[in-house]
């Protein structure tokens, strides 16, 4: 019986099944195979066992599954291809209609598009693909522009290197460096001292200390290039502090060659107290003239991080004289605090030292903080500031505008 079953399988696989699969004879073939098997069973043994009937049923199921797989491979593939083509045509029609459709779409994205449950979901998915494609294009464009800028910068750097190689420019730069260093060396012997108080490290964060050091570096560069530089002192300076590490980051090997005085001692231990003046914006005393015999102290701090009165309290605790720049006397102050950066203070002090002209010195104050210079006497300044404040508050605006226009016709017309 088993030999007969094997023989029937071979005969059906070789002849009947492919022919049936090609011509769609699925229903007629299965009853014929069952009758053949039954007739052979009757010839050999009229009484068939129930186990043999179960084998026939299982064999039928196996044959059905094989036929279904072969037919599905032959029939379903063209259906999928036709549906993908239809989806592409739909997207092309949407593109012609002016909708946001991506230019390139893969088969996986098409299948996802076909699986969307509704038309609105399909529109949202296509819009998402379109935006994704636009982002990729923008990223590529930015990368190309960045590459072009880098190449241009390299070309310019190569050109500047060629110009730097010229003997005249090299000689000029080296000569100027020698001249600046010679002036700084002279200032260490004959120059007027200027003290930077480095005792505010605990009052600031790491970022604010780094900002302070950058301002001091710019101040030192400005002082070194001036005609009559100060002799700069860094007092209360601790080794391996945040200040120290930031200075090494900025100066690197040149830190040990700077023509300045660095000490961990307080300025009251180095200079007599009667010659020290602490410059702070919180001081009630206004600086009238620049005194060449005095030693001015500047707090090494970022203004926005320090509370009001910290530097003034420190100066009073040490019993020192204080002074503030006469900003309200010479400038029509607009808004903001009257604190300046360290490099601005250095420019102002150097200009006062060379020219003794407050108008030239205060030109280094940022223009956003004041409206202009005051040309009237000091006793009329308070009235003018009251007028400005009244204008801002909006009280009796027309009357105040007339008075302000009479006092400052040029400034009022500019507004």
Automatic annotation (TrEMBL):
Domain SAM-dependent MTase TRM10-type: 180-372
Sequence intervals crossing the membrane: none
Localisation: Mitochondrion
Gene Ontology molecular-function annotations: tRNA (adenine(9)-N1)-methyltransferase activity; tRNA (guanosine(9)-N1)-methyltransferase activity; tRNA binding
GO biological process: methylation; mitochondrial tRNA 5'-end processing; positive regulation of mitochondrial translation
Region annotation (Disordered) ranges: 137-162
Ranges of biased composition (kind: Basic and acidic residues): 141-162
Cited InterPro entries: MT_TRM10-typ, MT_TRM10-typ_sf, Trm10_C_MTase_dom, tRNA_m1G_MeTrfase_euk
Class of this enzyme: transferase
UniProt keyword Lipid biosynthesis, yes or no: no
Catalytic reaction list: an adenosine in mRNA + S-adenosyl-L-methionine = an N(1)-methyladenosine in mRNA + S-adenosyl-L-homocysteine + H(+); adenosine(9) in tRNA + S-adenosyl-L-methionine = N(1)-methyladenosine(9) in tRNA + S-adenosyl-L-homocysteine + H(+); guanosine(9) in tRNA + S-adenosyl-L-methionine = N(1)-methylguanosine(9) in tRNA + S-adenosyl-L-homocysteine + H(+)
An annotated GO cellular component: mitochondrion
Record EC number: 2.1.1.218, 2.1.1.221
Record keywords, A-Z: Coiled coil, Methyltransferase, Mitochondrion, S-adenosyl-L-methionine, Transferase, Transit peptide, tRNA processing
Keyword field contains Transferase: yes
Protein name per Swiss-Prot or TrEMBL: tRNA methyltransferase 10 homolog C
């Amino acid at each position: 019986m088993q030999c007969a079953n094997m023989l029937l399988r071979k005969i059906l696989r070789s002849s009947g099944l492919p022919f049936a699969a090609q011509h769609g004879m699925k229903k007629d073939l299965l009853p014929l195979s069952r009758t053949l098997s039954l007739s052979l069973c009757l010839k050999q043994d009229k009484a068939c066992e129930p186990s043999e009937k179960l084998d026939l049923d299982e064999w039928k199921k196996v044959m059905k599954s094989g036929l279904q797989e072969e037919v599905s491979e032959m029939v379903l593939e063209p259906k999928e291809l036709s549906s993908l083509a239809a989806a592409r045509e739909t997207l092309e029609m949407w593109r012609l209609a002016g909708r946001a459709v991506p230019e390139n779409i893969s088969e996986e994205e098409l299948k996802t598009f076909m699986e969307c449950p509704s038309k609105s979901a399909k529109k949202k998915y296509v819009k998402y693909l379109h935006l994704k494609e636009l982002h990729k294009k923008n990223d590529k464009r930015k990368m190309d522009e960045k590459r072009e800028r880098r190449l241009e910068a390299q070309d310019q750097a190569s050109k500047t290197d060629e110009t730097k190689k010229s003997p005249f420019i090299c000689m000029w730069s080296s000569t100027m460096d020698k001249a600046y260093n010679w002036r700084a060396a002279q200032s260490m012997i004959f120059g007027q001292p200027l003290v930077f108080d480095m005792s505010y490290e605990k009052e600031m964060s790491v970022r604010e200390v780094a900002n302070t050091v950058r301002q001091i570096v710019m101040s030192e560069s400005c002082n070194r290039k001036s005609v009559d530089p100060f002799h700069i002192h860094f007092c209360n300076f601790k080794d391996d502090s945040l200040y120290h590490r930031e200075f090494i980051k900025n100066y690197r090997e040149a830190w040990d060659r700077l023509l300045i005085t660095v000490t961990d001692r307080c300025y009251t231990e180095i200079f007599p107290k009667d010659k020290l003046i602490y410059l702070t914006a919180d001081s009630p005393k206004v600086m009238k003239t620049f005194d060449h015999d005095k030693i001015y102290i500047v707090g090494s701090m970022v203004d926005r991080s320090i509370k009001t009165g910290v530097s003034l309290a420190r100066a009073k605790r040490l019993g020192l004289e204080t002074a503030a720049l006469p900003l309200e006397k010479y400038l029509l102050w607009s808004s903001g605090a009257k604190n300046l950066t360290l490099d601005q203070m250095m420019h102002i002090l150097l200009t006062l030292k060379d020219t003794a002209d407050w108008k030239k010195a205060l030109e280094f104050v940022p223009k956003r903080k004041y409206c202009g210079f005051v040309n009237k006497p000091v006793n009329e300044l308070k009235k003018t500031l009251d007028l400005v404040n009244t204008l801002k508050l909006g009280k009796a605006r027309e009357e105040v505008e007339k008075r302000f226009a009479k006092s400052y016709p040029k400034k009022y017309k500019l507004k």
